[in-house]
Each structure stands twice: as C-alpha cells, then as structure tokens.
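Hi W.,

Here's what went into the run:
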Amino acid sequence: MEILLLTKKAQVFTIDFVLASFILMIIILTFLYLWNFLGVRWNNINEYNKQYAIGLFATESLVTNAGNPPSWENLETINQNTSFGLVNERNIINQQKLDRLRNVSLQNYSLFKERLGATNYELFINVTNMNRNVSFYVMGNASLQLNETVAFDRFIFFNGSISILRLEIWK
Amino acid sequence: MEMKKAFLLTVDGVIALSMLLVILAIIVNQVFQPEVPRGAYLKQISLDTLKVLDYDNRIASAINGNTTSARSVLEALPINICMQLNIEHSLNSTNITVAKPGCGGYGNQLQTSYRTVTVSGTRYIVKLESWFRG
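Here's what came out:
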C-alpha cells in the first residue's frame, strides 16, 4: 500500500514537471521570437535612418556648397579629395557644375556615389521644373521599388526659374 | 494536498514569468525606439523656400498684392509638408499670410524660420511656419 502511494506521487510529479517544462519552453520560444522580431525591426529602422542621413547630407552638400575645391568643375580629373557642390550661392545652381556632375555620373558612377557619401547605395538625381512635368537633368540609377527609396526634394533656382532637385537613395 | 500546492505554484510561476517577459519586451520596445530625424529635412526645405521666394521676388510680389506666385511655390512642396508664410512690418499694418492649400491646423514637428526682406526701402520680417502633415 505504501509502495503504491509512493509510485503514484512520483508519476504526478513527472507529469507536472513535463507540463511545466513544456509551458516554460513555449514562453521562452515566444519571447525569443518576439525579441528577434524587435531586433529585425530596429535594424530596419536603423538602416532606414542611415540611408536617410546620407541622402539628407548629400542634397544639403549639393544645394548649399560650391564643393571642394570651389571650382572642381574645371578639374581635369576628379579624385578622392574632390567633393561635389552645385552652387556658388545657396540654392542658386551653377549650370557648369551640374553639367560636370552629370558627366561624372556617366563616366564613373562609383566615384559619383562615393563622393556623395553613398558608396553602398544607389543614387538618382532629377532636376525638374516646379510642376515636376519637365525634366532638365537626370543622372544616376532610378529605382523601380518605391518602398525602398528615400527621396529628398529641394528648391533651387535654375535657368531663371524656381526648380526642384530631387535626390533618391535606395539599396 | 501537497501535490495540489506544488501544481498551483508551477502555474503561478509560469504566469508570472510570461507576464514579466512580455512586459520586458514592451518596455524595451518603447525605450529603444529609433526615431527618423525628419526635422532636419524640414528645416532645410524651409530655408530653401525662403531663399527662392526672396530671390525670385515673389515675396515682393506678395507685399505688392500678388500672393499667387508665392502660393504656387508652396503648392510645389512635397505632399507631406505644409507651410504658412507670414509677412509683417512692425511700423505699419502690413500683415500678409500665404498658406499651402489643404493644410488645416498644425501637424507634427512645427518649425519656424525667419528672414528679413527689403522691398522699396522698407524692411519686412518674413516668418515661415512649416510642419509635417499629421
């Protein structure tokens, strides 16, 4: 009688233990899944922020700076020390600089991206009129996936009228 | 009797632990939420707007009664950005307001930029309020 009772107790304990372990495992797995989900989400946001910052600085550099050296558009060769800027006065586009930038993008797209700080991304620049229905300059690679593209529109004064410089950065 | 107590303790512990983990996940998600720094872009495009409006004499046109040309620039802004231009003169009653159509009330990340403009020898203060559409 006493032996039977002990056996019963042991069986119940085992079932209880197995059940508890199973529930605990489900909880831990759920938590790990949730943690991984959050990690992926944070990584995506961080990646987006990085892409956003590069685009932001690239457009700011183009529409507010002359570049380095200031007459870089007259250089015979663009090297690693050259930085691009399209203006002599904030927002007022120098067409020679714009022409040269387009040539660089056509001749050496990697250098074009690198000097704008976007080595690991793709860049597309489009200069249009204010209504965005006439395109004056196009350079770089356009993205077909709009959801992965971050775009920055900046007002510029080009060719006697207010225009828009749009920079798109994507991966 | 002892078996029942042990079972209750396990359930109790499991519930407590699951609640703890879920709450921890929620807190971590709320605390470490990276934010997209959109304010810098809003400031940049606001300064662009003031510059091109002034450079193309559209602020002067607005002071002289034609606000259409200034409004057309605001209409060309990206769809998620709203702006309202206010031209004031401290000594006379000039107070002109030009707003982007379809932008009622202030939305997110309201910013204010100023520029002084001289038209016909008179100095005006141009205030540009910008925000993201809510």
